[in-house]
Specification:
homodimer, Rossmann fold, 3 domains, six-stranded parallel sheet, Substrate-binding domain-containing protein (chains A, B), DNA-binding transcription factor activity (chains A, B)
């Protein structure tokens, strides 16, 4: 990944309506003329400033959108690039986050950009504070990591028109925003295939946060894996989690307390799988002798859990790196051909899964 | 933590030689006059630019130092604050890092500053690239987290005279650079006191990286704890680690293979303690039945290891938050009264420690 090409500050050429740079070039003054406003007013709209009358803003934005206007090229006229990427998490409280940061920082650092890390804690106030900071520092782009931003903040981000990439989208992402995810459905399928091949028929499942697309995809993969082995999914074997240890512990305990407990449990994150380990231990059982456990993520520590965890690897650092590279391309005015990318997941078999030793229904 | 007070761009008042702002005010033009150079030349020195003759630089720097010159106040004359903090790690590969980031981001975010996270991987090339990026983005300050920067980079940082705070210093830090650490010696002592109170006499130890001050302090605390219980430290029970899982595993395995293995092992990090867990499991033993294990850090996942880990808590997020607050004060021109702060460590007893059940020499 090389550095961004240096920008010519006089370059205010923008995309033509068909997204083809060979087409008619549109400049800020053309937009101003068509909108019947001054050039500074168009600049204010482009820069997302609030001191523009709503009607005027709407008119200018319609023109900007009609011409597929690349506002970044324009913004660089006003002030030099800050050479920053803004990376936004809901929370910074998981080893998962550091993997993503690592992948992004690596690419950004080599390109001469700083990676500004923020957490919004799902609080509208914190998100608005972040947005205000973002505007002040004129970042080159934003990477949102399964961020739950409320509508006003999303609307404001669109108005700023900063290049944006979403990692692991929560739900539907705005059109034209590239998203980077993993093949969660295939990952869920591969976990269950591994367990059914070992002979397990009664396989518990602990989901991630229901509102997240990746959670749904993993559960659908789980169901598909069961059905592929001729097993009818049983809702009594499914518990809802939130990706964190504690929910894995409670989900695992509930499953183990069933009259006919599962012989294997597939948790939708490694941290929840470790919660299941603890539920197994507290019951006086052992992993994998009494219960096999599969996780999802392949965090570095899974190699060192006791026993080492069989898990579905999603390439978090690579997802981060790809997000950063995509963002740099957007910032340079390129278009992204495939705006929805899913990197492959891969089952890593370690020592937490063996053939079932208890008999089960 | 409130926002930085707004700076008056005309405020080029600086500290008098006794560090008291009530004293004589010194301006950039006074320095220029005394040095017999132009005001722009002084500015170039203040801003760390290289286009100044070495002799001139030396003369100006001597005057700046003599007057205890607060260069930041000056730099703000030249360009507006970037509202950024630069946070530098050696590596972004541990759950430990995310705790530090969380503490810093929280304070910075509320103060309207962005936290730029970088990793230098102990590579001079990466460190120089970071320094170049730092200059381009005109950060308000730098937080180094046990960073191993080589001398040229350290020298350049001093020349830039950006406010700086060091978290968990590797070795001796530059004079006048505030450092934030934890009471590592007392933490080591408390771990061993807990084990000797349980009745352990043969206690193994796995150190952190030898060149780090915190590693030395933990080991000295370990030795002091043994001696306080009337036990002569035995070098055969000490293994060197590097804070990561694998070194804990190897150190733990070596200790367990001794003819007279220890009944308890104190590892200088939680991740190494988990490596010990795995060594215990592979030997066919169990924690804590056969070997008690104590870690250091109290990472969030220690609550959920099997069994939950007894460990010395160091308040990583609070250390990060204090570093950020100290940096904001430096950036605002305040002085820090106590430049060497150690936050208290605290033993958290969970389920990995019990009285010894095997007899030992």
């Amino acid at each position: 990944m090389g550095a961004l090409p240096p920008r010519d500050p006089s370059d205010n050429a923008v995309l033509s309506p068909d997204g083809n740079t060979d087409g008619r070039k549109v400049t800020i003054s053309v937009i101003a003329q068509e909108a019947g406003v001054s050039v500074p007013t168009v600049s204010r709209v482009v820069n997302g400033r609030s001191d523009v009358a709503p009607d005027t803003r709407r008119r200018v934005e319609q023109l900007l959108n009609r011409y597929g206007y690349n506002r970044r090229a324009l913004r660089t006229q006003a002030k030099p690039s800050a050479r920053l990427i803004d990376l936004v998490f809901n929370d910074l409280d998981s080893p998962w986050a550091v993997e993503i940061i690592r992948g992004i920082e690596d690419v950004a650092h080599n390109a001469g950009l700083g990676t500004v890390v923020s957490a919004t804690h799902r609080e509208p106030v914190a998100a608005r504070q972040w947005l205000q900071n973002l505007r002040a520092r004129a970042s080159d782009g934003v990477i949102l990591v399964n961020s739950d931003l409320d509508s006003p903040v999303q609307e404001e981000l669109r108005r700023l028109n900063v290049p944006m990439v979403v990692v692991d989208p929560v739900g539907g992402s705005p059109r034209n925003t590239p998203t980077i995810g993993a093949t969660n459905w295939a990952g869920g399928l591969s976990a269950v295939e591994h367990l059914t091949e070992l002979g397990h028929r009664r396989i518990g499942f602990i989901s991630g946060l229901r509102q997240m697309l990746c959670s749904r995809a993993r559960m659908d993969g789980y169901r598909a894996g069961l059905e592929a082995a001729g097993i009818t999914p049983d809702d009594a074997l499914i518990r809802e989690g939130d990706f964190y240890h504690e929910s894995g512990f409670h989900g695992g305990r509930a499953l183990l307390e069933l009259d006919d407990p599962p012989t294997a449990i597939f948790a939708s994150s490694d941290t929840m799988a470790f919660g299941v380990y603890e539920a197994v231990r507290q019951r006086g059982w052992r992993v994998p002798d009494d219960v096999s456990v599969v996780g999802f993520d392949d965090l570095p520590e899974t190699r060192w859990s006791s026993p080492p965890l069989t898990t579905v690897r999603q390439p978090l650092a690579e997802m981060g790196a790809l997000a950063a590279r995509s963002l740099l391309r957007l910032a340079a005015g390129d278009t992204i051909e495939s705006p929805r990318v899913e990197l492959a997941t891969d089952l890593t078999v370690r020592e937490s899964t063996v053939p079932p030793r208890r008999s089960s229904g």
